[in-house]
Design brief:
The protein is an alpha/beta fold. It has one domain (2-223): Rossmann fold, CATH 3.40.50. 39% of the residues lie in helices and 24% in strands. The protein has 9 helices and 7 strands. The chain has helices spanning 2-6, 15-25, 29-34, 38-48, 65-74, 87-100, 139-150, 170-181, 193-199; strands at residues 55-59, 79-84, 106-110, 123-129, 151-162, 203-212, 215-223. It binds S-adenosylmethionine. S-adenosylmethionine binds next to α2 and β2.
């Protein structure tokens, strides 16, 4: 475990730089990345299995497609919260939510996932796709511990992330080389997702692997 963790690339970008990057690309995010990543996101949301009446959180909601999908399933009796570092992503998502007429059941906040601005034992479900990869290695347990804190007893968390688990492939090596050379451009780096959740005290309910542009992706549902 220790050896594997040590092979995860460190992240040196500051929060201000991350915020500025996502503010800058918010309008272009869907055609550049969002649509291409939609399959694993949809599978993750399905596996999280949010029910009518539940209270759900999406961390790093980006352009807001996940927030809308969650708001549709929680129904009138449920509530969806979102937190994202980028004010422009928030503005874009808020306008998407307003257009769908679901604003009464959605609450969006700007903030940092290493310090979630929510009470303990508050959420039935948390969703995070292509976000955990952006945190520096020592921050990953911090984010997951925050998720554990705000989840209700038996609450569940689904993480969709590029994966370093399993045999290295030339494509993954190439991608990681690209990440090291151009960390602002290829900012998500592969992680040991299931192991990270388990190290944070979350029990694995289901772990699925798939390929995205031939890069391994883990979709892990854990529970408190
Ligand atoms: C790669 S995008 C993924 C967006 C969305 N989850 C998706 O799958 O389309 C990463 C998102 O995480 C947000 N983000 C980055 N660092 C964050 C942090 N420290 N706390 C909260 N959100 C963060 C970014 O602003 C951006 O919207």
């Amino acid at each position: 475990m220790l050896n594997e963790d040590m092979t995860i690339t460190r992240v040196t970008r500051t929060r201000a730089e991350t915020r500025a990057t996502y503010d800058r690309i918010s309008r272009w995010y869907d055609p550049l990345e969002g649509y291409w990543e939609s399959k694993p996101k949809q599978i993750g949301l399905q596996k999280l299995g949010v029910q009518s009446g539940e209270v759900a959180l999406e961390i790093g909601f980006g352009t807001g497609h996940g927030i809308v999908a969650l708001a549709q399933v929680v129904g009138e009796l449920g509530k969806v919260y979102g937190i994202d570092l980028s004010p422009r992503m928030l503005a874009l998502t808020q306008s998407r939510v307003n257009q769908t007429g679901l604003a009464a059941r959605v609450m969006l906040k700007n903030g940092d996932a290493t310090a979630l601005p929510f009470d303990a034992n508050f959420f039935d479900a948390i969703f995070m796709s292509f976000v955990l990869e952006l945190f520096d290695t020592p921050e990953i347990p911090q984010v997951l511990s925050e998720c554990r804190r705000v989840l209700k007893h038996d609450g569940r968390l689904c993480v969709v992330s590029l994966s370093k688990t399993g045999q290295a492939t030339w494509r993954r090596n190439l991608y990681e080389w690209g990440h090291e050379k151009f960390p602002s451009l290829l900012d998500c780096r592969p992680l040991y997702v299931q192991k990270a959740l388990e190290a944070a005290g979350l029990q694995t309910r289901e772990a699925t692997r798939m390929l995205l542009w031939e890069l391994p992706v883990e979709i892990v549902v854990g529970s408190k």
